[in-house]
Design a protein that fits this description.
Mean pLDDT: 85
Low-confidence stretches: 1-6, 17-31
Number of strands: 15
Number of domains: 2
Structural class: mainly beta
Strand content: 35-45%
Shape: elongated
Radius of gyration: 25 Å
Number of helices: 2
CATH class of the largest domain: Mainly Beta
CATH topology of the largest domain: Jelly Rolls
CATH architecture of the largest domain: Sandwich
Order of helices and strands: EEEEEEEEEEHHEEEEE
Length: 298
């Protein structure tokens, strides 16, 4: 895109491949694979739950809501309140014994950074002995709990005896493994002092330098496309998700076809008297549907 363009380019783009349009989305690099998460096979229950929408089973569904997202209803386990003199129990039971070597705990951070459990004890198969105990940190992301020796058991019980003070502590996810998951497969814990609790998720990754070889392939049309449909507009700084179409509008920009082989732009629609929010392209690449608010007085 020419450096002289002063308006932002909307990040959703469409690729024109011959006469067929293909949507392009950000794809993370292939991550190292985890061993099987045994918690997904177990029946889960807890001694306390804030409501049916925060029952224990939701901590074994494979989802970890973003910090500050306020979006963990039906996706996390939360206790009812933070006063539990006898501890809060979280239990997993399997039909047959499994090997338990490591537990990975993800704190509950969708509403507050402090709704993580802190001190814990682990027991197996209703035995009276504590096989492991420790202290969890505040923050968002994986925390490893490694048993001193891998054990076979049908039941795993975690007794949480304290929290970091949040109103309804819990877990976004609790995973169980027979072998150690690679560090790169789990990711890293983000401590409380580095959390962004605005729902935008973890801090952005480091800037990735452009690949000259990839640029060469794009320019040479070796990736199966030569053109993108793009929206040029100012950033929309709405205060709520449902007001983006009418709040903080700044007119300008337009709808363009961008040729990746020579950086040329072909204007399809001039929105200098309004703002285009986004666009969609039909599967055959012939029709574009877009949202256009004609002026700030509309």
């Amino acid at each position: 895109m020419s450096a002289s363009c002063r308006l932002g380019i909307h990040v959703s783009v469409w690729v024109l491949v011959g006469s067929v349009a293909v949507a392009v989305a950000d794809e993370p690099a292939a991550a190292a694979s985890k061993p099987e998460n045994l918690a997904r096979q177990a029946k889960a229950w807890a001694s306390t739950a804030h409501s049916d929408q925060y029952s224990a089973g939701f901590a074994c569904d494979g989802h970890v809501p973003a910090p500050g997202s306020r979006d963990d209803v039906g996706r996390a386990w939360a206790a009812r309140g933070n006063h539990h003199p006898d501890g809060a129990w979280f239990t997993l039971e399997w039909p047959e014994p499994v090997v338990i070597a490591e537990i990975v705990y993800y704190g509950r951070t969708a509403f507050a950074a402090s709704e993580n459990w802190k001190d814990f004890e682990i027991r197996l198969d209703d035995g009276p002995d504590v096989v492991h105990q420790g202290v969890l940190s505040g923050g968002h992301g994986p925390q490893r709990i490694v048993l001193p020796t891998p054990a076979r058991a049908r039941k795993l019980a975690i007794r949480f005896t304290s929290s970091w003070g949040g109103p309804n502590p819990g877990a976004s996810e609790i995973e169980v493994y027979a072998t150690r998951p690679p560090d790169e497969a789990l990711g890293a814990l983000i401590p409380v002092n580095k959390l962004r609790m605005d729902g935008s998720g973890p801090p952005p990754p480091p800037t990735v330098e452009e690949s000259p070889e990839l640029v060469r392939q794009v320019r040479a049309a070796q990736l199966g496309f030569t053109k993108l449909v793009v929206v040029q507009r100012h950033h929309i700084g709405a205060s709520h998700v449902y007001t983006y179409h009418c709040e903080g509008q700044r007119d300008g920009g337009g709808l363009f076809v961008y040729d990746v082989t020579d950086d040329s732009l072909t204007r399809l629609v001039d929105s200098s008297g309004g703002q285009i929010q986004a666009c969609d392209l039909s599967y055959d690449g012939r029709t574009i549907v877009f949202g256009w608010r004609r002026s700030t007085d509309a």
